[in-house]
Write a structure and sequence with these properties.
It contains eight helices and twelve strands. It has 228 residues and is of the alpha/beta class.
């Protein structure tokens, strides 16, 4: 069955270019000029992936992503931001809100296709489905199967990438992972990532772990790991 992709962008030329190229790759594609339009699209179809612009009339891409991640039925849909906003702050915000990747315009169709494949592969074979056991350390309780994290009994929301990274660390206490190790483990070997993507996710995880933030250790010049 074809993977279905929603493209949400207010530039008609970009929508058409993406439709032609993605359909040539075997995807089914639906186009929307605004986040308002796509609400109707959800009534008939739940996409396998969303390509999302940010600067649009009405509700922008950041707000729309926040809404998707708070919707029980839609929250697991992968989102790739595709935007002319290229500042580091915008990339970090997109990832913090739950984006799975962030690509800046102008962009390479070849690179976009590679990123789509990597994100779909990860969402199609999520680590949480292969990990049934509860992972615990002091007040930190991670249940990958139920997609949940509790810190001192308080429920904490995680993005899919954050969940996979924390699972990787907690399943391998004491092991040091380079950034390449982490990317290969949670996103796929041929993925392209924006600058400091791994660092941003680590920063977000530490914030969410609160007083237990130091269990994710930085090994200077090497990478990251879980330290009891």
């Amino acid at each position: 069955m074809k993977k279905h992709i929603f493209v949400i962008d207010d530039e008609k030329d970009i929508r058409e270019i993406l439709k032609i190229n993605l359909e040539s790759e075997g995807y089914s594609v639906s186009l929307f000029a605004s986040t308002v339009e796509v609400i109707k699209g959800f009534e008939s179809t739940t996409p396998d992936l969303i390509i999302l612009d940010i600067l649009m009339e009405g509700k922008d891409g950041f707000e729309f992503c926040r809404d998707i991640r708070s919707d029980k039925k839609l929250k697991s849909i992968p989102i790739i931001f595709l935007s002319a906003k290229s500042e580091e702050f915008d990339k970090i915000l997109g990832l913090e809100l739950g984006g799975d990747d962030y690509i800046t315009k102008p962009f390479s169709i070849k690179e976009l296709r590679s990123r789509i494949k990597a994100v779909l592969r990860r969402s199609g074979e999520p680590l949480e489905e292969r990990r049934g056991k509860l992972l615990k350390y002091k007040g930190v309780e991670l249940n990958p199967e139920q997609y949940s994290l509790k810190v001192d009994s308080e429920e904490i929301k995680l993005t899919k990438t954050e969940l996979n990274m924390l699972s990787l660390f907690m399943e391998n206490p004491g092991k040091i992972f380079t950034r390449d190790n982490i990317i290969n483990s949670v996103r796929g070997e041929d993925v392209f990532v924006v600058d400091r993507t791994i660092d941003v996710h680590i920063m977000n995880l530490r914030k969410k772990l609160g007083t237990y933030k130091n269990i994710i250790t930085t090994f200077s010049g090497v990478g990251y790991g879980f330290k009891e």
